[in-house]
Design a protein that fits this description.
The protein contains 15 helices and ten strands. By secondary structure, it is of the alpha/beta class. The protein has two domains: 105 residues, Rossmann fold, CATH 3.40.50; 163 residues, 3-Layer(aba) Sandwich (Rossmann fold), CATH 3.40.50.11810.
Length: 277
């Protein structure tokens, strides 16, 4: 991982649904003095269309060949994504091209700097019980690159959360997809809701205060589907869901407005009040 300057790769899902969360990684990097380049010319990785079977790999390849060129022209040795799907898509393109630029997930950078973050915290997660959900496109595609834990039991977010003071809980369906499923989301949302319900039901059994997620798609699915499932099934979940960058920025002193708390479908206001004391 480069110590010089990261090429910060933006997420189209965060940009569309949780735009303030997109800014949280920048807030964290700024607080830590980590250098990055935020390029307005960056294109989408096309991951949503590619993994939904809409875009052929050739189109994805050419779009991201340009993105790699932009990162190189910016003098960056690596690309850091806020999104697990971008991470997997860019790694696939990198391997196909044999490109020298490395690809990392934003949580990799936060994990590497977790001790520095702990020393700068304005708030902690002491007393907060949470469950984690790692993105499938982070852990299950390039499974040999999972450095913390195992592909079916990644521990990266767990170690980050523990370093921030939280109690991390285990639950039965830890390895299950959030339910987004890309192509399924477009063609069969009932199937997606069934998977999300199974996941949330398993989480609810251990009574967490928070679901900490890795991926914008997982944030959208577990946050958005809670309200729908509560109306359709009559079962109340009301478990706040937060993206790792959003939570880290909050603990480093960012305000609820700065992290975009109002964009959440399942409200996180009470959790924020509790964390801020």
């Amino acid at each position: 991982m480069s110590e010089k300057r990261h090429y910060l790769f933006k997420s189209c899902v965060l940009g569309a649904y949780y735009p303030k969360v997109e800014e949280c990684l920048r807030i964290v990097f700024d607080r830590l003095g980590i250098r990055y380049f935020d390029d307005p010319n960056q294109s989408s990785c096309t991951g949503h269309g590619y993994h939904s079977g809409i875009y052929p790999f050739k189109s994805t390849l050419e779009v991201n060949r340009r993105n790699f060129s932009l990162a190189r022209d910016a003098g960056c040795d690596d690309i850091v994504t806020s999104c697990a799907t971008s991470y997997a898509t860019l790694k696939e393109v990198k391997n196909f091209l044999g490109d020298s630029i490395e690809v990392f997930h934003g949580s990799d950078v936060i994990h590497k700097n977790r001790d520095r973050i702990r020393g700068r915290l304005e708030h902690s997660l002491e007393g907060v019980r949470l469950v984690t959900h790692h993105g499938c496109h982070y852990a299950k595609i390039f499974y040999k690159d999972v450095k913390v834990g195992a592909p079916e039991h990644p521990m990266l977010l767990d170690e980050i959360a523990a370093s921030l003071g939280a109690e991390v809980l285990e639950y039965k369906e830890r390895g299950l997809c959030c339910g987004m499923g890309f192509r399924h989301l477009l063609l069969d949302q009932e199937y997606c809701k069934k998977i999300a319900e199974r996941k949330l039901t398993s989480m609810k059994k251990v009574k967490p205060d928070l679901i900490l997620v890795h991926c914008p798609g997982c944030l959208l699915t577990l946050d958005y589907f809670q309200a729908i499932l509560e109306k359709e099934t009559g079962v109340e979940f009301k478990i706040p869901v937060m993206h790792y960058a959003e939570l880290t920025a909050l603990l480093l002193g960012a305000s609820p407005t700065e992290i975009g708390a109002a964009a959440h479908h399942t409200k996180i206001d009470r959790l924020i009040e509790r964390i801020k004391g």
